[in-house]
């Protein structure tokens, strides 16, 4: 038994899977960068009240799952359970909304929720997120959704769906809420569910139990009770998504776990992930900034689950950049080492991913390590090559090898790798 192990529910990534995780994170961020979102580094912990106000006191995320502690000055802080509240605090605090709108930011990193751990549900979860703040325009909603879609698509994922709905606004949602509460009050629900229905009736629609779902078949749905402005807005979002070639599914029963959503709301689910199928989600939030002491500006954003996207890629059998080297450099003997160190440095400066054999391994052991690394080529230098200022360049797939002048190795390797890639 090791003396210590990682905390429960905290996934760790290392070796080839570490490289694959990084590849997923970079791929999730790339479309946001291409769409003009700027990187923001937001704090990992914030004033607890920020999340209570921003995310909602009645949500599970805030009421049951936050890691909250007092700092040495007696202030209550919480590890961030999500990123939107922190970004909005940043915008308000630094008056970013007084500049060019929309403010477009992306962020990435760990978030913390004390959930019951299971496959794909972690206590330290990783997200790549974006927020676009200050403009209410259906074309912006479509852009944000398309950025998320492009991230999944560029990774090669195919078996995912985009679920889309509108949760209405301050003028149509209260009336719908009253209607839904009246409907729920007639049902045969247990005490806890009844209490939930009073606090947050929409969440009851998301109850997974068959006994509850059976009673919800005729429940009133927000999408049938949108005001004219929200209905038109939603139609326009759908129209722009069609123009962008983003496939979506109407999901009038979609419920999100966070309270701030209004109008456009969406979730990406993956077909092969079982119970934890949500690989990303987001939506528009009208009142969030004002509730945090800022102006009445609206925003829209998403959070994409990096851990779950990696699981989805693995489930679809996609090959990700596993950090495989292009070249493995092998020195046989002390004198060859200097030549190999020089060559490895040169190769890396040319952008070639290079590993070297260390220690005094014999040729056999070093060749085994080279094969295991997955490298395409090996550069081998022994006493004979040192005396000739040459090296053996070996193609590890075909087994073909040639002698190359030391000064020509980098150019030769680059051209062979290019040839192999074509
Ligand atoms: P969220 O739906 O709570 O939204 O989280 C976004 C994504 O993070 C989920 O779709 C899922 O992939 C991943 N995720 C959430 N919880 C876990 C967990 N326990 N384990 C593994 N992955 C998880 C938000 O956080 C919002 N801030 C998104 C947003 C941004 N909305 C507007 N702007």
Descriptive notes:
- With 422 residues, this protein is of the alpha+beta class.
- It folds into two domains: 15-172 and 226-315, Bira Bifunctional Protein, Domain 2 (BirA Bifunctional Protein, domain 2, 2-Layer Sandwich); 327-417, Anticodon-binding domain (Rossmann fold, 3-Layer(aba) Sandwich), CATH 3.40.50.
- Helices cover 39% and strands 21% of the residues.
- The protein has helices spanning 15-34, 48-55, 60-63, 84-93, 138-154, 173-185, 191-199, 201-204, 210-213, 228-243, 288-291, 306-315, 334-349, 363-373, 383-388, 409-421; strands at residues 38-39, 45-47, 68-70, 76-79, 103-112, 124-133, 160-166, 249-250, 262-270, 278-285, 299-305, 327-331, 354-356, 377-381, 390-395, 401-405.
- The strands form three sheets. It has an eight-stranded mixed beta sheet, with helices on both faces. A five-stranded mixed beta sheet has the order 13-12-14-15-16, sandwiched between helices. The chain has a three-stranded antiparallel beta sheet with strand order 2-4-3.
- Strand 9 and strand 10 form a beta hairpin.
- Helix 1 (15-34) packs antiparallel against helix 5 (138-154) and helix 2 (48-55) packs across helix 4.
- The two termini are 49 Å apart.
- The model has no long low-confidence stretch (mean pLDDT 95).
- Residues 82-84, 113, 115, 120-122, 125, 127, 129, 131, 257-258, 278-283, 301-303, 305, 307-308 line the site of histidyl-adenosine monophosphate.
């Amino acid at each position: 038994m090791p003396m210590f192990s990682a905390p429960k529910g905290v996934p760790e990534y290392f070796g080839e899977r570490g490289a694959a995780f990084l590849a997923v994170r970079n791929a999730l961020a790339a479309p946001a960068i291409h769409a003009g979102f700027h990187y923001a580094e937001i704090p990992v912990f914030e004033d607890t009240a920020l999340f209570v106000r921003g995310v909602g006191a009645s949500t599970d995320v805030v009421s049951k799952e936050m890691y909250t502690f007092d700092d040495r000055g007696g202030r209550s802080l919480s590890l961030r359970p999500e990123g939107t509240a922190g970004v909005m605090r940043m915008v308000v605090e630094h008056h970013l909304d007084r500049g060019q709108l929309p403010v477009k930011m992306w962020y990435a990193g760990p978030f913390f929720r004390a959930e019951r751990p299971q496959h794909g549900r972690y206590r330290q979860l990783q997200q790549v997120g974006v927020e676009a703040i200050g403009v209410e325009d259906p074309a912006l909603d479509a852009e944000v959704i398309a950025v998320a879609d492009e991230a999944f698509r560029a990774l090669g994922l195919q078996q995912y769906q985009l679920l889309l709905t509108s949760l209405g606004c301050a003028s149509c949602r209260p009336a719908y809420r009253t209607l839904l509460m009246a409907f729920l009050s007639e049902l045969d629900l247990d005490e806890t569910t009844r209490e939930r229905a009073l606090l947050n009736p929409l969440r009851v629609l998301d109850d997974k139990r068959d006994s509850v779902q059976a009673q919800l078949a005729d429940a009133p749905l927000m999408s049938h009770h949108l005001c004219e402005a929200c209905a038109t807005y939603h139609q326009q979002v759908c129209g722009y998504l069609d123009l962008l070639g983003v496939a979506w599914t109407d999901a009038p029963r979609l419920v999100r776990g966070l309270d701030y959503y209004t109008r456009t709301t969406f979730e990406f689910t993956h077909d092969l992930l079982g119970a934890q199928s949500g690989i990303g989600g987001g939506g528009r939030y009208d009142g969030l900034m004002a509730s945090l002491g800022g102006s009445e500006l609206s925003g829209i954003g998403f959070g994409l689950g990096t851990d779950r996207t990696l699981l989805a890629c693995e489930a679809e059998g996609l090959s990700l950049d596993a950090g495989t080297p292009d070249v493995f450099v092998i020195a046989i003997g002390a004198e060859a080492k200097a030549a190999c160190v020089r060559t490895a440095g040169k190769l890396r400066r040319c952008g070639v991913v290079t590993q070297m054999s260390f220690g005094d391994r014999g040729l056999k052991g070093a060749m085994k390590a080279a094969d295991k690394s997955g490298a395409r080529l090996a550069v081998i230098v022994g006493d004979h090559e040192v005396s000739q200022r040459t090296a053996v360049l070996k193609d590890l797939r075909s087994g073909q090898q040639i002698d190359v002048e030391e000064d020509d190795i980098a150019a030769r390797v680059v051209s062979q790798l290019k040839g192999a890639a074509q």
